[in-house]
Amino acid sequence: MSSAPPLDDDPKLVARAREGEVQAFEELVERYRDRVYGLALRLLRTEADAAEVTQETFLAAWQSLESFRGEAAFGTWLQRIAANRALMMLRTRKVRQAAREEIEQPGFNEHGELIQLPASRWARRADERVLERELGRAIQEATDALPEGYREVFLLKDVEGLSYEAIGELTDSSVAAVKSRLHRARLALRQRIDQYYRETSS
Amino acid sequence: MSGRNADTPEDAQRPERSRNDQDMSGPNPCQAHALNCSCEPDGPCTCGNRCTCQDAVTLLLDYLEGELPAEQSERLQLHLSHCPPCVEFVEGYQQTPKLCRKALEAKMPEALSRSLSSFLREKLEPGSS
Asked: Which residues in chain B are closer than 8 Å to A186, comparing Cβ atoms?
C-alpha cells in the first residue's frame, strides 16, 4: 500500500461515511479494494482466503469508523486492519505453509569474501525494464519459500511499506528481530534474482 | 567478494569485476579496518582482521538506513570504495524490494470484486446486522 499516496478527498469521504452514508464508504472500498486484496493475497496465497479477509477488513472498517480519528491516513489504518486479519488467518492455516525451515544466504570463504560474484549488472537496469515473466515467477516462488516469520516481515515492510514498529506489534516481535528477519529475507531474495540473471545470461 | 575464487569460466573472464587490482595475499588489501578490530582507527590495521565483504553484508541494512555508529559506517564505506563486487551486491540488495513489488502486484479479480460489493451492500444497508 505504500506505492499510492492517499487521495486528497479521502477525509471528506470518511466523514460522510461516518455519518452513515453507504455510498461514500463504497467509494472508499472502490479506491482501496485492490490494495487490501493484494496485501491479503500475498500473505495468504489463495484467492478465497484473500477475498474473505478483504470482506472482513471492509466490514470491520465500516463498523469501527467511529474509532478512526484521522491521525493516520485512511489507507494506512485500513492496511493495519487487513494485515492483522490476514496474519490471524495465517496462524490458523499453518498446515498449508510449504515454506522451508532454512533461509538461503550468500556464502563466504574463509577470508570473508563472497564465494560467488554478483551476476552481470542487473541492478543498474532493473528500474527501466518490464519484469520478465520468468523472473516474476521465480520471485513469487522464492517469496513463498521464505521460512515462516521472514516472509511476513518482508511482505509487510518491503511490499506494503509498514513501519518496523507496526510490524513488531502485528507479529509480536521486537524491532531488532523484525530488522534481522527483513535483512535475511532480502538477502535470500537478492540471491534468487542474482541466480536468475546468472542462468539467463549464460 | 574478490574475483580470486572464480568458480566459473565466466567469472574468470571478468577481471574488471574483481577487487581493484590489489595484492590479495597481504594483510587487509582494502586498507580498511575490520569492523571488529581494535587497532587505532587512523593507523594501519595490524591485527590481521580484514574488513571483509561478510562484515559489509552483515551490516548492510543498518548501514543503508544510517543506523550504524559513525566509525563503523566509515569503515564500511571505505571497504565499498575498494570493492566493486560489494558495490554491485549493494545495488542488487537495494533493487530487490522494487523487483519484488513488481513481481507480487495483484488486482482483485472482477468476480471477487462483485461479490465484495454485494456482500458489503447487504451488510451495510441500514437495519442489517
From this structure: 61, 93, 96-97
